[in-house]
Automatic annotation (TrEMBL):
DNA-binding recorded as keyword: yes
Gene3D superfamilies linked: 1.10.150.130, Intergrase catalytic core
Regions crossing the membrane: none
UniProt protein name: Tyrosine recombinase XerC
Amino acid sequence: MIKLDLAHKNFIQQLEDQGRSKSTLIAYGKDIEQLVDHLQKKGINIITDIELGHLEEFMKKLANENYTPKSISRKTNSTKTFFRFLKEAGHIVDNVADFLKHPKVEIKAPRILTKLEYRALRDAARDDVRTFAIIEVLLQTGVTISELADINVSDLQVEKETGSLSIPKKSSKDGRTIPLNKAAVEAVKKYLDQERPRIDDSRHLFITKTGKPLLVRNIRSTMERYFKLAGVEKAKVNDLRHTFVAHHLSQGTNLLFISKIAGHKRISTTERYLQYIERVEVEEKTELGVL
């Protein structure tokens, strides 16, 4: 029998061994820490003593504390992942979390930036070489903010006007290679040549002046500042990913191609964008144009 604290520690260690991003480790860590704290206050300290009712009670408690359905759904996912780990590690026989239900979450329409908006964002950051490169990589490749923060210089293959970006395989996602268009290549080259500190042991592409990797929260706060400067309202970093997918689909890019480039687990995720765009009637493309 394993105690909750040790199981929690082992779970996070396994995620780290799998190469999960720091932001993922923090999110899972906090979610399960919150669950463990709730269970311990109920006098439950051993994994095998947990019943479905205890998990449902925890989720109900979160709802009473005004957590949004989206937040509770995320914590439900974390709990299910934790219990799958416990089952695979042989710590439990029956996985009670299999029967834990997600709350109903309203699926909002993605925020898709107009050409005027993303051009205004680009113009606002034009004199900030590093941020301009970050914007171009996000906008021209559709990577997530976590993937952006994890990019190493060695993941890039840059030629004169084109190139590619390799996103390594994670336990939750397959690896993929994303073509880089002229806009992305020019922005990255300028950053590498003019702005990025010459620090030999810094593997990450986007780093601070002291050579430390830019954290997700640093990137997010910087982007929020530039959205404000550009006058782009109610936009977040992930909306550049929405914009990438929607723009290319609207221009006739092949649905399956975009789905693979974006790293969507299911084609239905990509198909969802079709209801928010007008798709031009052209021969389908399997290449990325410039936004």
